[in-house]
Design goal:
The chain has 22 helices and twelve strands. An eight-stranded mixed beta sheet has the order 7-1-2-10-9-8-11-12, sandwiched between helices. The protein has a two-stranded antiparallel ribbon with strand order 3-6. Helix 3 packs across helix 9. It starts with a strand and ends with a strand. 57% of the residues lie in helices and 9% in strands. The longest helix is centred in the middle third of the chain and has 35 residues. The chain is α/β, with parallel strands linked by helices.
Length: 687
């Protein structure tokens, strides 16, 4: 086949000039008034050529009996009789017209940062968020479980081992950014995925607030004149400004912080271990202290509190596309081994240096106090400086993570697209970090800066995300079991991981039932905005009805504007790539689009080898049946000659003007030659 790419249109016999769905992005071509355009490059030429023919069969105008009952839909503010338009079905190849387009450039398929992070850099970015948790989790765990704190932290390490395989399977099967949101988006409905996104946002809020508070607590050991309350708000504001300026977390800087922090923790263990050997009576006395609760409850509550020490483990899944192939499972293993080994050992060192009373009194800066007693004043200041540095890095990670997630949600129309507004100064989405700062600051002020309260909200949101991730992985096994992935979690591991986080979630609610109110309040705010976005068409319809019952001057002022707003919302084109003529799959695809997307326009694409393929006619005829079953959905049929690949998907995306996150496919089999992540966000919606 030649290196040219061609585009075909339906002949004039099937199209009339008043077709209401003429796409304005297609310049009118002489002799083909129904839509289409002159030849234009799909993407910048260069790289390897991928020859493809592109043929489109659109909805057309038909004649209907005068006695037919009109079924009105609104296009561009005009009432249109839907019965006057239908999908024509199969069009003979000799009635299709073609034009030539340039091939796609492979180098433009993905963002330049894709696959740039090696194992060390990937571990460092995730590790800063994860290992910063140890700075406060030891103190709060010891407060609950006393001398059993190391055991509780060890149990958490075993639970994290289960999640290592759960996250590994999900991330290698669907290697796309977004974490739990992306996983559930490809295995359940968009509304369920949005629920996980809301919890993730709340988790980022808690991450930023807790880390900023602890950062200033440790900094106050260096500079006693620091007011922790006001400086925490100031730190959140500083990172908000930096995010607006476009300063993101650098992998090199992250690696430096991580290496310094790990070296500091290893040195603290060594110094503390020597001090323990010289003062063994401290550890012995701590072991004889009575527990606050009976030992089963002490272990349970300690375990529930210690789960705070693994917050950040999910961070790696939010930048999986930037990691080199095969690095993600290694990042998870490295993160797990650090937590599994370091947290219990540091807890033992603290018990060997400080008595339980001192541990509880200094639960917010327990490591700095341990370093001060074991190694002297300057060693304590060193650990305080290290703690402040790594906790500040954790705050930055929260900002970077939430900006990426909220931007994805806004692009998917789950959050207001006003958040995508860019400032002329730095070309950044400034409204996202500003909104995030307002949410963080208000939460901090309402809770009065009490870290234990904030930690509870932090833990509850994080545990909910982990629980949804477990459920999502189970759905992945059930509904997307054919996808090739190098890591697989066993069913017992999935159920055990889910049970562990549910126990931890219930335990944290029992420990601080009052904090559940704050959690629900802020979750309700974020979820409420998302629900409004999903129901905005219904809300506009109610408003339009109320206007229609009012005075004529109100109808003249608001009715047309409201109708245009609804038309604009529902004008987003959606693409589904069909593998065959399976009527059930086609019907499920249309049903999914109608239930999950605010649109009335679906383009079904079939990639074929030869125009004599009998599947073309079969799909066209089935689409004609489905079109009549879904009168409120406009269905077009697009034929693409070539081989289904990321390059062809990019060609179709550029030609139709449809972002790849609004392009859907059926679940591929285990022999599928491509990685799902190579398609730039294409979503799986059927078995």
């Amino acid at each position: 086949m030649s290196g040219n790419v061609e585009y075909g249109l339906v002949s004039d016999d099937y199209v009339v000039s008043d077709d209401f769905r003429r796409d304005p992005s297609y310049p009118v071509r002489a002799g083909a008034p129904g839509g289409g355009g002159e030849g234009a490059p799909l993407l910048a030429p260069g790289g390897q050529a991928f020859a493809t023919t592109f043929t489109q069969i659109e909805h057309v105008s038909i004649q209907t009996p005068a006695t037919a009952q009109p079924s009105l839909i609104h296009i561009d503010g005009k009432a249109i009789d839907a019965h006057r338009y239908e999908f024509p079905g199969w069009v003979p190849p000799n009635e299709l017209k073609f034009e030539t387009l340039e091939p796609v450039d492979r180098n433009t398929l993905h963002h330049p940062t894709r696959g740039t992070l090696n194992e060390l850099y990937s571990t460092a970015i995730c590790g800063n968020d994860l290992t910063s948790s140890v700075l406060y989790v030891i103190g709060v765990t010891t407060t609950m479980s006393g001398q059993l704190a190391p055991l509780c932290l060890l149990i958490v390490g075993f639970v994290l081992y289960l999640f290592k395989s759960v996250y590994g399977e999900a991330g290698t099967a669907i290697p796309l950014n977004g974490g739990a949101y992306n996983l559930l988006l490809n295995t359940t409905s968009k509304s369920v995925a949005s629920l996980a996104a809301c919890l993730t946002i709340l988790s980022y809020v808690a991450t930023a607030v807790v880390s900023a508070t602890e950062c200033m607590t440790y900094a106050s050991n260096l500079c006693p004149w620091i007011d922790v309350y006001w400086w925490t708000l100031g730190l959140l504001g500083v990172f908000c400004v930096l995010s607006v300026m476009g300063i993101s977390e650098s992998a090199v800087v992250a690696l430096g912080i991580f290496l310094v922090h790990m070296a500091s923790m290893v040195f603290l263990i060594m110094v503390g271990g020597v001090y323990m050997l010289q003062n063994s009576e401290i550890f012995a006395n701590n072991l004889r202290e009575p527990l606050k609760y009976d030992w089963p409850l002490a272990i349970l509550f300690g375990f529930c509190t210690a789960m705070l020490g693994v917050t950040g483990f999910e961070t790696s899944a939010n930048y999986i596309e930037e990691q080199q192939k095969g690095v993600f499972p290694k990042t998870l293993f490295n993160s797990w081994i650090v937590v599994f080994v370091m947290n219990p050992i540091l807890s033992i060192v603290c018990l060997g240096v400080l008595d339980l009373g001192t541990l509880e009194a200094h639960h917010r800066d327990v490591l700095a106090k341990t370093a001060y007693d074991a190694g002297g004043k300057y060693f304590g200041l060193w650990i305080s400086a290290d703690a402040a540095l790594v906790l500040a890095g954790s705050v930055l990670t929260a900002y970077v993570g939430v900006v990426g997630l909220v931007r994805r949600l806004a692009l998917d129309r789950c959050l207001p697209q006003v958040l995508l507004a860019e400032n002329r100064w730095r070309r950044t989405n400034h409204l996202i970090p500003i909104s995030f700062f307002v949410l963080c600051a208000s939460l901090f002020i309402i809770l009065g800066g009490r870290v234990r309260s904030l930690a509870s909200v932090y833990t509850m949101s994080f545990l909910c995300v982990m629980a949804l991730f477990s459920v999502g992985n189970m759905m992945l096994k059930y509904k997307r079991g054919r996808i090739r992935r190098p890591v697989r979690a066993t069913w017992p591991s999935c159920f055990a991981a889910l049970a562990a986080v549910l126990i931890a979630l219930i335990g944290n609610i029992m420990l601080a039932p009052g904090h559940l109110i704050y959690f629900l309040l802020y979750f309700g705010i974020v979820a409420g905005i998302t629900i409004l976005m999903f129901e905005r068409i219904r809300i506009l319809k109610y408003f339009l009805y109320l206007v229609s019952q009012g005075p004529v001057h109100l109808q003249d002022r608001f009715a047309g504007v409201t109708q245009l707003a609804m038309d604009k919302i529902k004008s987003q084109k959606i693409v589904f790539f069909a593998k065959n003529d399976n009527l059930e799959v086609l019907n499920k695809a249309v049903s999914y689009v109608q239930s999950n997307e605010l649109t009335k326009w679906l383009k079904v694409v079939y990639v074929y080898d030869d125009l004599s393929d009998p599947m073309i006619k079969a799909i066209a005829e089935n689409l004609r049946v489905i079109d009549r079953c879904f009168p409120k959905v406009v269905i077009d049929f697009v034929l693409v000659q070539g081989t289904f690949s990321p390059e062809v998907v990019a060609q179709v995306s550029a030609r139709l003007g449809v972002p790849r996150n609004f392009m859907f496919i059926a679940c591929p089999g285990d022999r599928f030659p491509h990685d799902i992540g190579d398609f730039g966000g294409v979503r799986m919606i059927t078995h």
